[in-house]
Every structure is written in structure tokens, then in C-alpha cells.
Predict the structure.
Amino acid sequence: MSLQTHPGTKPDPGTLPGPAVVPRAKKNTLSAFLSRAPRIRLAGLLTAPAGWLILVYVAALAALLITALWTVDTFTGKVSTTWTLDNITQVLTDPVYQIITLRTIWIALAVTVIDMVIAIPIAFFIAKVATAHWQKILVIAVLMPLWASYLVKAYAWRNVLADGGLLEWLGAPVGVSSPGYSETAVILTLAYIWLPYMILPIHAGFEKVPDSLLEASSDLGAKPLKTMRLVMLPILVPSIIAGTIFTFSLSLGDYITAQIVGGKTQMLGTVVYANVGAANNLPFASAVSLIPIVIIMVYLFVVRRTGALNNL
Amino acid sequence: MRLSKSAKSILGTITGLVLLFIYAPLLLVVVNSFNADRTFGWPPKGFTLEWWGRAFESTGVREAIVTSLWVAVVSTVISLVLGTLLSLALQRYKFFGREVVNLLVILPIALPGIVTGIALNNMFTTILGVPLSMWTVIIAHATFCMVTVFNNVIARLRRTNARLEEASADLGAGLFTTFWLVTFPQLRSALLAGGLLAFALSFDEIIVTTFTIGAGDTTLPIWILQNLFRPNQAPVVNVVAVVLIVISIVPIWLAQRLSADSVGATTGRKAAKAVVPAA
């Protein structure tokens, strides 16, 4: 950065060059008008992006809720604007969808926990243990391939898990069999794909913990585990929660990984996709998609006070 | 905190194992792109360049890449403008409803992609009656790419000093001059990093794209997904995947390098904190 301020160092007025009477700078009138009107300035900044978000996104979410209350004409296959609670009742009461919902939540939870368990020690090692030289290399080594295409990674796991593939070949001598294309495969693959979304915020969180604080804790006699629990964890919580928002939400809506490595595994996403495409029943798909929306909204509401939302 | 030698080496080993876990599947794709055996059994039975040749001759791949690039460029430009405006508004002003806007901007990434996908699909097809096209994809992509730019720029704005802008105004610079000569230079690398990430995100997006793209258009991820399950095409998909791994590394590496200057800024702040004991 070329512009750095040094708080506390004021320029000496005696050395300032220039005429005693500063000539009034030529301002363009719009700029002059705007600098006198902060509210209009703010409106100018806010209108386009907030308008976009409201008109495109909030409107679309609202429309989704409305469409969930409509139905499909069985003869024409077109959406008919007859109001009904049938879709929502069916999603909530039909055991098929209850099972799929529970399975999706289970997969998303498992992925989140696995990623947390992997990300915390790695992020800790990179941010606080490795030497400065290794830190840079490790950050790039861990994060770069993980940003590679979602599809490529899911596809890579299809290769790994395939019949007669790498995992089977590796596992055979030790008597471990490949999970094949299954629910376990979905969890494994999603955990792999979303790992950077967990490592990134946690790594940033560890970087925020000042070394002096850790030294102070150790000087006062705390063992590393105690320092970790009492000093680091409270600072890290928002970062970890930020990571869980990503992994949980991204897994909750997945259907492509389920298609590629899941075999017959059905997730909420699969149901939504099937109802938009093949079944052409947008109202029912909308009703199903309300489930992940409600789950994530509740989660965001619960964690809102931790400051996690500023760590996304 | 003083860690014992064994604790350090355990952590180091875990890191090494995870790196192995990260790279092995990707390397397997690379190896399989040269695998003569169509079923990709392990170990590979022979070496061939056939799939690479076929991939370079495939017009479907080329058209899909052009579509993807076009969508990614346009949605990155839109999201750069909107994301920057929004971050300036939220960082430099306090106003009623600020928290709501703050929540609004993270919604597109906090909600699953399938929600964004079906919500926009439903709005375009059922409510507005707009036919799906490349433009509906661009609108959808810009909506979540905006967040990446917003995050990068607002993080930088939090570190830059608003007093510099006041000083610029005191010295007689107009609003636009101040933005161009004082604010923008400080944001430049954050904008570049945010833009690169937005581009990568759009180029890679599959779920939202599936729901918002018209029948005639194909982005690269859509092409991959369509050909993944065709036994004849699967080897070509391997080649495209390898090329994608290599290509996606470039913008990420660049973004990493660019945000590295933020590391310098943090160290500077740490030094300042050491000097000023308050707070």
C-alpha cells in the first residue's frame, strides 16, 4: 500500500509551503453538491446494490414462498395460482420426505464435524507453529488445489471410489473395502470439497490471536491445552461458526455430489432438482426448498450475536 | 505457548496427511487422463494421449468454455461495481437498516445454492415469464459474486483510514477526485483479489447455473456434468478436469499473492499496537 498514515505524527505547519490565501479549488458542481449532502451520497452508494439484492434476491425468495402455496394443473402441467397448503403439508407429513430431510441434515452435520476436526489442527499448525517461511507455502499448498473446480473434485472421488479403483486397491491388503457409491461416499466427498471453506476462516481466526497473549498465558503457568481452551477458543468461536455456516449450508443444498458418488442416496437437493426438471412441479420443489431455508435462517439467527456473520 | 517437540511433530504429521488427502484424488484425475483403460481401474494398464487429442478437437468443450468465460467476465464486472458501492455504504456510513442490508448481502452465500437456483428459476419462469438465457445466468451469478467482492473490499476498508479521505477533501479535492486518487489506490489489490475470486466462483458454478440456464446454452461445468456419465466421453472429461485444475490454480495463486500485502498491513498494525499500549 502506498498510502500509510502514521498516527501521532502531525506535519509541522511551519514547513508547509504554499500561498497564505488558498485559492478556492474548482469543484464540479455535482461533487460540491454531494459533499454537502451525506444522505444523498449514501443513497447514491446504496441504491444500485441494495436495489439489486431486493429486486432480484429477496423478491425471488418471496416468490418462492408464494409459489409453494400454489399447485400444478394436472392436465396442462402449468402452474395454477390456486392457493393450497397441500405441498407444504405433504413435505412435512410424508415419511419419505421426513427421512430425506433427516438424512440431508445428518450428512450436512457429519460433513461439518469432519471438516472442523480436520481444519482446526491444520489451521493452528499453519498459523502458529510453522515458521514464517513454511506458513506461506502451506497456506498456498492447502488452499490452492481445494479451490479447484467443485465438479472436478466430485469427479476425482468418483475415480477414487470406483469399482477396482484406487481405494479398493489400497484397502485390499489391509482388509478395508471401499464404501462404493453410497451415503458414506457422499459425506467423504462433500467433506473434501468444502474443507477450504472451513480452513480459511479458522486460519484467519488463529492469525487474529496475538502471540503475546499466548506467551502471557504460558508465563502465568497455563499448559498448551488450557491456553487453547481458555484463551484461543473464545477468540476462535466466531471463525469456526463462520466455517460451519458454509459447510453446513453448502452440504444441505447439494445434489450433484449425491448424483456423482451417492449411488441411490437421495437428498433434499435431489428432490428439488427432480421436481423442477423431470416432474415439472415447481410449487412442490419450492415447498421442499423451504426446508433448508428455514434451517439456515434459524441457524443464522442463533449465531448472529457471536459476530460470526462478519467473518464470512 | 510452548508446545513440546512431539506435539509439534504430531501436528506436522496431521498437516502432511491432510495434504496427501487433498492432492491424491486430484493426481488420480491427472493420471487417469493418460490411462488407456476406460474404466479407470487401478493400477492403470497403459499410457495413451488419445483423450487429450479428442478433448482438443471437441467443439462442444470449446463452445462451453467461451460461454463460461463470457458469463464469468460480465458477472464479475457487475459484482465489482455493486460490491464496492455496497461496502463503501456499509463501512463509511451509519444508517437505519444497516444491519438488515448486512444480512441481505450474505444471504446469497449463506443459503444453499439450490435455494438461490430454484428461487431465481421460479421468478424468471413462473412469475415474470422471462425465457432462461445466458443473461438469467449472469444475473444469478452476479448476485452471489457480489458477496465475494463485498467481503474483500470491506475487509480492506476496515483497515484503511477514513481520515485520509477527509484530509483530501480539506485540501480541496472533490468527491470523485478523492475516490480516484485516495480511496481507489488503497482498494486496488482488494478489488483485484475479489474480482478474481468472483470470476473463479462464477466459472465453477454448477448448481445455480443448472437452474437458470436456457436449453440452448452450455457452460463448462454443465458440459462436464452432461458428459460425466457417458462411458465414451468420461476419458475426455478427465482431460478437461486436468486443464481446469491447472487453470483454476492461476487466479487463486494470484489472489493469494495479492492478499499477501494485507499480511504486511496486519503486521504493521501489530507493530503499531505494540507501540500504543491502549486498547
In short: Chain B is about 80% helix and 0% strand. Confidence is low (pLDDT under 50) at residues 261-279 of chain B.
